[in-house]
Write a structure and sequence with these properties.
The chain is mostly helical. Helix content is 73%, strand content 0%. The chain is globular, with a radius of gyration of 26 Å.
Length: 297
């Protein structure tokens, strides 16, 4: 008896439904990133090399080296660097205190919760808070003057200045440092300290020869991230100082939207310079973070 076997159907390309669902889930984020991050960046980069009437030019790039624009970049770099170093220094010790300092767990949860809120507290509300606290008629200024006889502004302090803006930026720089550095401190293995103690190392030797070299990529990378975070901030600076402090974001705003300094394409070139500076900072941060993650594995 002859048996007839059914032909085996040819297997075509299989469709992974789970993978499709995963891509559909991330599609809104990719669309959002393209529309509000990538597309505007490409528009700024291209616009920096054209005149308002559409002619190709390098004048916008050469104008970046004029004294007024170079001065704005220099002030922004100084403010960003000062607030990043101050935020990194204070934030490191705060994170160390709650992770390795033996404080109660409630203190850690409270600090991390506050840091999550304070790191996003910026713009007009933050500027108003500092004016109401450290302004010429602010609460802290009046209390120091009336209760302790100390006039803060007689020392040369001015909230609407380099020092005042740096201090204001540190309000959200310190919590951001705490949030980013806490996981790195959590990754410090107890075996490393135990091994150093067995070998006769002191606490100072452990930190200088073991802990800090391991944490150094995280510390430096987070400081670079804080620098980029402060360099691109505009809402707080504009609400606090107006146009009295010539930093790059305010100069960019004046070039694009202002009535007097209206030159959109020069504004695009200024934005391109900011993208380069913050981009280099973020790339270095990512490289240092990957190195720190390799250490902690």
């Amino acid at each position: 008896m002859r048996t007839v076997t059914a032909p085996i159907p040819k297997s075509g390309p299989t469709i992974n439904k789970d993978r499709i669902i995963d891509w559909l889930g991330i599609a809104p984020f990719m669309l959002f990133a393209f529309l509000f991050l990538l597309a505007p960046t490409f528009y700024l980069v291209i616009g920096a090399f054209f005149t308002p009437d559409g002619q190709l030019t390098l004048k916008n790039i050469s104008d970046l080296f004029t004294p007024s624009i170079l001065s704005a970049y220099w002030i922004s770099i100084r403010i960003s660097l000062a607030s990043a170093l101050g935020g990194a220094f204070i934030g490191f010790f705060l994170a160390w205190a709650v992770v390795l300092g033996g404080l109660p767990a409630s203190v850690r949860s409270t600090l991390l919760t506050f840091s999550g809120v304070a790191s996003n507290f910026a713009g007009v509300p933050l500027a108003f808070a500092f004016l109401a606290t450290l302004g010429r008629t602010g609460l802290a200024t009046v209390l120091l003057r009336d209760w302790f006889g100390f006039n803060l502004y007689s020392t040369g302090f001015n909230l609407l200045s380099f020092t005042g803006l740096t201090l204001t930026y540190m309000y959200f720089q310190i919590p951001l440092m705490v949030l980013i550095l806490t996981p790195a401190l959590d990754g410090m293995k107890k075996e490393w300290r135990e091994a150093s103690e067995i070998l006769g190392a002191t606490n100072r030797q452990y930190w200088t020869m073991v802990a800090l070299p391991i944490l150094w990529p995280s510390l430096l990378g987070t400081t670079l991230l804080l620098f980029a975070n402060a360099f691109g901030a505009i809402a707080t600076a504009y609400a606090l100082t107006g146009s009295s402090l010539n930093i790059v974001p305010i100069l960019l705003y004046a070039q694009i939207r202002g009535d007097v300094l209206h030159n959109p394409n020069l504004g695009y070139a200024i934005a391109l310079g900011m993208i380069v500076i913050t981009g280099v900072s973020n790339v270095l941060y990512l490289m240092l973070r990957m190195r720190a993650e390799r250490w902690q594995k």
